[in-house]
Amino acid sequence: MAEKRRSGPVMSDPKAAKCETDHEFLSQSGVSALLRGALLKLVESRSEDPIGFLAEHFGHLSSEVDDGGSENLTVSRSLWHLSLSHHSQRSAFNNNVRVAYELLTQSAPRRRRTGGVRGVVYTEVLRCLCSEGGLSGASAAPLLQCIQCHDYEAVPFELFRQGVLTCSVFADYIRKSQCLYAAVARAPDRPAERALCQAVLATLQEALETADGPDVARYLEASAKISPAKLAQAMAEARPPSQQQEGPTMDAQEFEDAAAALFIARVRKVT
Amino acid sequence: MSVEPVSCTIKSPVALQIGDTVSDLSRPGVYITDITLAEPVNIQEISFKNYYTAYLTVRVQQREDGSVKWVTCLRNHCLMANPHAEAGSHDYFSIYRQQMSAKPDNVMTVRLILRQPSSEWLSFNIEEINIYPCVKEDTEWDVPAWLSTLTPVETSLDLKGLPDPETVSSSIQQMWALTEIMQASQNAASIGRFDVDGSYDVKLLSYM
Q1: What is the mean pLDDT of residues B74-85?
Q2: Global confidence as pTM
Q3: ipTM attached to this prediction
């Protein structure tokens, strides 16, 4: 609904710029593209606080435009991009990882721009991802040891994406293992019985160690091993219901560490 | 299922006639064909092509525990509904094990008795006789062990005092799925390190 302002004969002074239509003004300044990008990002991330999200988005954009930013700022900006979508939203997640990677490679001083993100920056990103995912330093340490890189190394994109995905998935995994512990313990104030915990972790390990073969067969076999019936059987064997007295217990941290070990055993070490 | 017919010797049909074969002008109404088998066979099927035979009787000679005996497996099986008409006169037939009144196992000889009561036809016979043995049902594929334990155990387990298996199973399934996602996303991307066990080994360098 742009109304053309009545302009007299064409004037050659700067004031003529104001006589263009609203439509032309928007397209010249690139604001429509800017808003479109912002809305796309908002829809992808489905944030619960849209206004806060948009404020952060424009804040990051403006600081990018003003200057390259210090390295810390770049890391926090790339972390913000990585937090936009869950790893299960595969295409959105991949896009965000690509954006974060570009941000980190471009932030390096020109002479140091080798084929990838600097190792120290990469390790810092992973560490922050783990802490943002709710993992303590101690929980995340074994994983980071597997996948982190030396300070001087240059991390290519595929490795960067793999590391970021592994950290996100690991954070979810640890959260799930906490839920599992709560289910096995049956009461929030009592620790779970050791025999039950070990039986439950053993079934998970057995499912993870399903022999190689066609994917479908492997999935079917593994899911048969962790069906409710199989678990009921395993738990009943581990602690017969007739046994009334409580056996030794396992606390939450130990359970979490054991579960984490199962995951980390399957993470490929960086070579 | 391609089963090879067993090798057998088919003797020429012998006519059953009253009186002298040479002088008698009437045509024979019964022919007997013997089929000798090389080794005792459990018969699954006898297939043949008919040529104007109306009724068929099958007798087998079985070897059982050293003794041999004749057993009738099929009596007057009708091949042509109307012996005077053409219907069924040139058809292909198969006699299956299930149709036989006695189990045709360990068969040494098969005797086919052909009858054609009609005087319409100059001669009658059966041709292209094939005998197929029983094939042992091999398990074509191995049923995995876990498949046989899929159906839930009928005996209800006493789950008093144990955690709810549904909740536990659901958490474990998600943990398993997350690990699978991580493993599936791993690729051969490498950073190109040259160190051996975390350190450069000087002995590996060559100065030549």
Answers
A1: 92
A2: 0.61
A3: 0.79
